[in-house]
Amino acid sequence: MKHKYYIILFVCLFISVPLKASILTLDSHIDIPFDFMQIPNHDPGKDTNMQVDLKKMVEGSLNSGFFVVYVPQGDLDRRGYEDAKIKAEKKFSSIRKMTEIYSSKIKLVKNPEAVIHAKEKNLLSAAIGIENGYVIGEDLKLLDYYYSLGARYMTLAHIGHNQIADSSIPSSRLNDPKELHGGLSKFGREVISRMNQLGMMVDISHISDKAALEAIKLSNSPVIASHSSVKSLADHPRNLSDEILFEIAKNNGVVQLVAFPNYLKVDKERDYAIRQLGISVARTYGDNEFIPSKHFTTQEFEEGIKNINKHFPLPSIRDFINHIDYVVKLIGVNHVGISSDFGGGGGVEGWMDARETQNLTNELRKRDYSDLQIKKIWSGNILRVWREVEKKSQKN
Ligand SMILES: [Zn+2]
User: Fold this and answer.
1) For residues 96 and 113, what is the distance between their CA atoms, to the nearest angstrom?
2) Distance from the alpha carbon of residue 221 to the mean position of ligand 1, in angstroms
3) Which end of the chain is more exposed for a tag (fewer CB within 10 A), N or C?
4) Complete domains list, the chain, with CATH
5) Residue 131 CA, ligand 1 centroid: distance in Å
6) How many angstroms is it from 343 CA to the middle of ligand 1?
7) From the CA of 201, how far away is ligand 1's center (Å)?
8) How far is the CA of 321 from the CAs of 233, 242, 286, 288, in angstroms?
9) How far is the CA of 113 from the centre of ligand 1 (A)?
10) What's the CA-to-centroid distance between 355 and ligand 1, angstroms?
11) pLDDT single digits (tens) 81-107
């Protein structure tokens, strides 16, 4: 009897381990704090209170991620641009430092093959994306420079219009008008052309609908939305309309649905509570950017979020997968991917940190997605886009 039990156990392990191991999971948007790698709590090689660290990635079988060089929007002048560059460089070097100090665990990757190779070697991998084209100022050469540091996508704008594009959420702090360029600026069009030449993916998350449609049309290569969800399911300015989703499909691009609570289910009460606590500009609804009445430390931020999550139930992993289902039905499984926005306000019940990553795979299986489809959603699609963007670049 005991013998039989061991045989069954062995067969189960034999079947389940390769299946689980064969799906390469890639999260296209992981935010990092400015003191990443500097304090023990934000050192991903240690036990941290961050949603993503190396141990959590291993535990949840999250193989790869785009770690994000995010810089908030400031004034559109030389001083603002210089300051943004310093901030961006700090984040680039902290990501590189992570992959140097923990080289036996995580590898810095600059092309899709390296992502696959790292997984085969049983290593985690970190790619880099820039969030906010503000960091290049008005100097196209900085695009080349950031590319050399490893940036493989760039979100054209963030909250607030910049020198490249109009934002989906104008900044009241910066006294933004409703529109600044009516889509992309002239410089923005040059930026897209240079990104195509370099082989850097154009990311349309965060920019206005007009700017997004223009960027998709202009780009010679497929585009990504690195972290956005569906407007038809949650009417938030950060989400994508069906029209934009169709254009992304035509362009052979990919939408990385994001596990960001307010983009999955618009909850005005929860939103109001966040504003009252004054926690984050990124969680605001509509065109009113919140101006915090005091400066919050990261710890206060994290505690505040926990407190809010206790009082206002978060959307669940099922709500998140509803967005995936919607896009799959509308434009097909080849244009869908996954992002968490962990560290930047992301996280839903069931996927609150990297440890819970397998819950998503399980939930997709419950909804009858095949392993082939799950592979595409988890990484196949974004790697296909990345490969095509590289192929079409003028370096090759
Ligand atoms: Zn964002």
Assistant:
1) 19
2) 22
3) N
4) 25-392 (3.20.20.140)
5) 7
6) 10
7) 16
8) 12, 17, 24, 28
9) 26
10) 22
11) 999 999 999 999 999 999 999 999 999
Angstrom distance (rounded) from CA 4 to CA 350: 35
Q: Under a CB-based contact definition with an 8 Å cutoff, are residues 383 and 117 in contact? A: no
The rounded Å distance from CA 234 to ligand 1 centre is: 16
In angstroms, what is the span from residue 365 Cα to ligand 1's centroid?
Answer: 28
Q: Compute the distance from residue 168 Cα to the ligand 1 centre, in Å.
A: 11
Q: How far is ligand 1, taken at its centre, from the CA of residue 283, in Å?
A: 10
Which 3 state secondary structure label does DSSP give 390? Answer: helix
Q: How far apart are CA 159 and CA 176, in angstroms?
A: 10
Residues 6+ apart with CB under 8 A from 27: 52, 62, 64, 65, 66, 338, 339, 340, 342, 354, 357
Structure token digits, residue 268: 């005005």
Instruction: In the chain, count H helices and then E strands.
Output: 15, 9
Interval between CA 206 and ligand 1 midpoint (Å):
7
Ligand 1 centroid from CA 80, angstroms: 20
Residue type, 40: P
- Please state the rounded mean pLDDT for residues 193-216: 98
Q: Residue 210 above 80 pLDDT?
A: yes
Q: Give the Å distance between the CA of 159 and the centre of ligand 1.
A: 8
Q: How far apart are CA 199 and CA 193, in angstroms?
A: 10
Residue for token pair 């992502």: 115
Q: Counting Cβ atoms within 10 Å, is residue 110 exposed (0-12), middle (13-18) or buried (19+)? A: middle
What are the backbone dihedrals phi and psi of residue 305, each rounded to the nearest 5 degrees, phi first?
Answer: -65, -45
CA 227 / ligand 1 centre spacing (Å) = 7
Crossing angle for the helix pair 317-331 and 242-250, to the nearest 10 degrees: 60
pLDDT band at 272 (very low <50, low <70, confident <90, very high): confident
Nearest Cα to Cα of residue 228 among 263, 181, 192: 263
